Amino acid sequence: MPEVKSMFREVLPKQGQLCVEATPTMVLCKPKLLPLKSVTLDKLEKMQREAQEAFRQQELAQKEQQPQP
Predict the structure, then answer these.
(1) What Gene Ontology biological process does one annotation of this record name (predicted)?
(2) Could you read off the pLDDT of 9-19 as tens digits, one per residue?
(3) Domain map of the chain by residue range?
(4) DSSP state letters, 8-69
């Protein structure tokens, strides 16, 4: 493969320090706290508890209305 000459040539200093630009690195940011349960899930669980409680109360009322032998 033929070697291609570029317009720019590399220049290194003969004395002194060589400055190298820092390469970009990963930076960790603060973690975002997420709720363990979503608001919708909380509402659904509350509705389910209320429905179960209402069902239990209906069962108790039916048992009380049944005649005792």
Answers:
(1) receptor localization to non-motile cilium
(2) 777 777 877 66
(3) 35-64
(4) ------SSSPPP-PPPP-----PPPP--SS-HHHHHHHHHHHHHHHHHHHHHHHHHHHSPP-
